[in-house]
Write a structure and sequence with these properties.
Layout (H helix, E strand, L loop, with lengths): L2 E5 L12 H10 L5 E5 L1 H4 L2 H4 L9 E4 L2 E4 L1 H11 L8 H31 L6 H23 L11 H11 L11 H11 L2 H19 L1
Parallel strand pairs: 1-2
Antiparallel strand pairs: 1-3, 3-4
Helix pairs in contact: 1-4, 1-7, 1-9, 5-6, 5-7, 6-8, 7-8
The chain binds S-(P-nitrobenzyl)glutathione.
Length: about 220
């Protein structure tokens, strides 16, 4: 059974924003049981964890002789070994993988930049001036994605690992007000969140937060 790592005490307070969520979701879609090892911020930076993850972060994935880091690589590995997360047709499979990269390389960067500014720069003198530009860069990507998705249920035909990556990336905007400006995208995220596998993954990470806040 694979083991993944996740925050012992996630700063998102159980909102499922940390990147173990996408790995949990992929494992749930694949009906692959898994163990979770919870790590503290201190433990993450120590040698034992850095042996698994050179940058001292979560998530990691261990299965037999294999250790992986980077959520995209982990989800791709899971998708390649289980049915239902990547299409059989070679071209459709290549396109689904392209969407995984698009989520991580094209859509996630401006979203992370905006989130980090909101989190860390609120009290800075330049914040009010910088915010609209950061929001605009996210809006550009959402507009482009909205034109692509339009009325479609998923990014490219059937649900795939590309949708797992994209929905988890877009969820980072849940409290930003930006998703509501793009009803197609908001509906797409809601469709992802309504999947039973997403719900199971979400409840599992929420249970970690609930237990931590009781102790
Ligand atoms: N590129 C890597 C991947 O995709 O796996 C990035 C991994 C990463 O950023 N991990 C973060 C981490 O370990 C957790 S997910 N951070 C600790 C550190 O670097 O010391 C990022 C995250 C954290 C918290 C929230 N939140 O509170 O809303 C959202 C996202």
């Amino acid at each position: 059974m694979p083991t993944i790592t996740a925050f012992e005490n996630s700063p998102d307070r159980g909102r499922g924003q940390a990147r173990d969520m996408r790995v949990r979701w992929a494992l749930e879609e694949a009906a692959q049981p898994y163990d979770v090892r919870l790590v503290s911020f201190t433990a993450m930076k120590q040698a034992a964890h850095r042996a698994l993850h050179p940058f001292g972060q979560i998530p990691t994935y261990e299965d037999g002789d294999l250790t992986l880091f980077e959520s995209g690589a982990i989800v791709l590995h899971i998708a390649e070994r289980h049915e239902g997360l990547l299409p059989e047709d070679a071209n459709a499979r290549a396109r689904a993988i392209a969407w995984m990269f698009a989520a991580l390389n094209t859509v996630e960067p401006p979203i992370v930049e905006l989130s980090m500014a909101v989190l860390l720069e609120r009290d800075k003198s330049w914040y009010a001036e910088r915010l609209p530009g950061l929001q605009e860069r996210v809006r550009i990507r959402l507009g482009e994605l909205s034109r692509h998705i339009s009325e479609a249920n998923w990014l490219d035909g059937a649900f795939s690992a590309g949708d797992i990556m994209m929905v988890t990336v877009l969820r980072r905007l849940n409290t930003s007000g930006l998703l509501e400006e793009f009803p197609d995208i908001a509906a797409y995220v809601a469709r992802g969140e309504a999947r039973p596998a997403f719900r199971r993954a979400f409840e599992a990470q929420l249970a970690v937060f609930t237990a931590a806040s009781r102790s």
